[in-house]
Design goal:
With about 300 residues, this protein is an alpha+beta fold. The protein is built from four helices and 15 strands. Strands 1, 2, 5, 8, 9, 11, 14 and 15 form an eight-stranded antiparallel β-sheet that branches. Strands 3, 4, 6, 7, 10, 12 and 13 form a seven-stranded mixed β-sheet that branches. The longest helix has about 45 residues.
C-alpha cells in the first residue's frame, strides 16, 4: 500500500505544473482580450479627430444655452514679469461671461487652420497707444482664451502688429510666427524676437495655429469695457459668412459678440526719449586726380 500511495503523490506532483501552466495561459489570453476591446475605446476618448462638426463654421455658429448654463466669470492673474521686463499695457480685466461649453458670445475665433480650411482663417485684433517720447520693446504678449470641447492646446501662436488708420488696423509692421507659449486658459506668448515700436497707436493681433480636424478651435476672450477703439476682426476667405474679408469692427462683423474689446497685455521694456538714429556711415573721400602741367616751350 505504501508504494501505491507514493505513486499517487508523485502523479499529483506531475499534474500540478500542467494545471498551473493552463491557468497562467488562460489568464494571459483574458488580459489580451480585455486590452483589445478597451484600448480603442480609450484612444477614441483621447483623440478628438472624430468630431461631429464638419467644419469650423458649424462649430463657431453653435449657440450656447446661456439661460440653462451658469456664466463663468474669468478671473485669472498672469504671472508678474521677471525684471527688467515690465507690464507695458494691460487689458486683462473686465472679462465677458463665457457660458459653457465654448464657443459662446464671450469669445471670438482667431485661428490659422489647416490648408483644407484656409477659407476659415480669421484674425482678431485690439489697439493700444504708446505715449509720446517712449519706445516699447515688446517681448511677450499675454491673452486669455478658450478651446472647443474637448480642449486641446494650440500648437503655437502667430502675433502681428499693425499701424492704425481710421481706428482700424492698416499696415503690418511686424509679425512673429509660431511663437511659443506657456499656460492654458491664460496664454503667455513669448515672441520669437522682440518688437520695437515708437510712440503712436498700434494694433496687436493674436492668432492660434491649430488644426481643426485633430484639435478643434481656439477663441480669444472678450472684454466688457472698451479702451481706445473697439476690437477688429477679419475673415479673408469668407468661410464664416460674416462679410468681413478685410478689417472691420468686431461687433459689426459678429453682431452677437458680448464685449467690444479683447483680453490681452503687453510685456517688455521701455526706452524714454526719442530713439537715437544710428550715425551715418563714414565715407572715404575720393582723391582728386592731380593735373600734370604741360611743359613750357
Amino acid at each position: 500500500m505504501t508504494p501505491l500511495l507514493s505513486g499517487d503523490c508523485e502523479g499529483s506532483e506531475r499534474i500540478n505544473p500542467a494545471i498551473k501552466a493552463h491557468l497562467v495561459r488562460g489568464a494571459f489570453y483574458l488580459l489580451l482580450l480585455v486590452a483589445v476591446y478597451t484600448i480603442p475605446f480609450a484612444l477614441a476618448q483621447r483623440n478628438p479627430a472624430n468630431r461631429s462638426k464638419a467644419s469650423p463654421a458649424s462649430e463657431f455658429l453653435t449657440t450656447s444655452n446661456a439661460a440653462a448654463a451658469p456664466a463663468i466669470a474669468v478671473s485669472v492673474i498672469p504671472p508678474i514679469p521677471a525684471a527688467p521686463a515690465i507690464i507695458l499695457y494691460d487689458q486683462m480685466n473686465n472679462p465677458a461671461p463665457t457660458p459653457p461649453p465654448p464657443p459662446s458670445d464671450g469669445v471670438i475665433t482667431s485661428q490659422d487652420y489647416e490648408p483644407k480650411f484656409d477659407n476659415y482663417d480669421s484674425f482678431a485684433a485690439d489697439d493700444f497707444v504708446i505715449p509720446v517720447h517712449q519706445v516699447w520693446i515688446i517681448a511677450e504678449v499675454d491673452v486669455i482664451g478658450e478651446s472647443s470641447e474637448p480642449p486641446v492646446p494650440p500648437d503655437s501662436f502667430h502675433v502681428f502688429f499693425y499701424t492704425d488708420s481710421a481706428m482700424l488696423p492698416e499696415t503690418l509692421v511686424a509679425s512673429r510666427l509660431a511663437s511659443p507659449y506657456s499656460g492654458f486658459f491664460t496664454f503667455v506668448i513669448t515672441l520669437t524676437s522682440p518688437v520695437m515700436l515708437a510712440e503712436g497707436t498700434y494694433w496687436v493681433s493674436v492668432q492660434a495655429r491649430e488644426d481643426f480636424t485633430s484639435s478643434g478651435e481656439w477663441f480669444w476672450g472678450n472684454r466688457l469695457v472698451i479702451s481706445n477703439s473697439g476690437a477688429a476682426w477679419q475673415n479673408p476667405g469668407g468661410g464664416f459668412g460674416a462679410n468681413c474679408p478685410t478689417w472691420g469692427r468686431k461687433t459689426t462683423c459678429r453682431p452677437t459678440q458680448n464685449g467690444p474689446d479683447q483680453l490681452f497685455r503687453l510685456v517688455g521694456t521701455v526706452i524714454f526719449g526719442d530713439p537715437t538714429p544710428p550715425p551715418p556711415p563714414r565715407t572715404t573721400p575720393t582723391p582728386r586726380p592731380r593735373q600734370t602741367p604741360a611743359p613750357r616751350p
